[in-house]
Amino acid sequence: MAEVSVPTDEAGLPVASDGLVVCVLGSSSKGNSTLMSYHGSTILIDAGLPKRYIIDTMRRIGIPPSGLQAIFVTHEHTDHIQSVGPLGATFSVPIYISDDSFFACRERLGDYHSKHTLEPGEQIEVGPFTVDPFHIPHDALSNMGFRIEAGERSVGVATDIGWLENTIVDKLKGCEVLVLESNYDPGMLKTGPYPRQLKQRIMSNRGHISNLESAKALELMITERTRHVLLAHLSEINNEPLIAAETVHSYLKDKGVEGPLIHLTYPMTPSVRIHIR
Fold first, then answer.
1. What is the pTM (predicted TM-score) of this model?
2. Residue 22, Cα to own-chain centre: how many angstroms?
């Protein structure tokens, strides 16, 4: 389990930070949510975890849920939308989602506060954040990645990647923090318990990318500005955290790519809390 170190007040209670805070609240096929907070304003990319867990984890890492300003949805699969509607309704914040994804999951969203349409290439301003959505191929009606900028800080988020289109690399290149899928180890997938059809879907150009494919993408995305990489959406069946980290680290080292710290993400457990002032 990741250790989360947060600033506290004189009473020992967590307090919000200045600068940029990034934390993957949880990431797996069971649920995904990534938090970004900048000088007290917060957005979520997906809310595919239980509502109570998201609220409690935000407080645990020192980010008041009352600062939530918007929820951005990558796509309509349940592990990305479970609590989107309830959180939006509870904190009276809008959800941003493509029309295709919205119509595919409208009944599962339940009540929500308000909805705004996401379109690839159309930037959205929310508080201090500029959010730039882009298309990612996956077996969903619509799937988005995001480049988020706040002040001089930048974060890129891309998961559920069927194949690495040039747009994905172009959008995420040079981000200070990268949250990138590293879904499976090919050997574990091939010898694992999944039926053949599911294995083929995962490895297809509408499925997910492997640890090595993630490493090859990072080779192209990392610049001197990149400080942190979070490996996300690791399969609990077809991957191991240490295998993912070692595959990426070894590949980048062999290619002479140095600089960023490589972090893991976990199901129903927050990642390291990244704080850049």
1. 0.93
2. 10
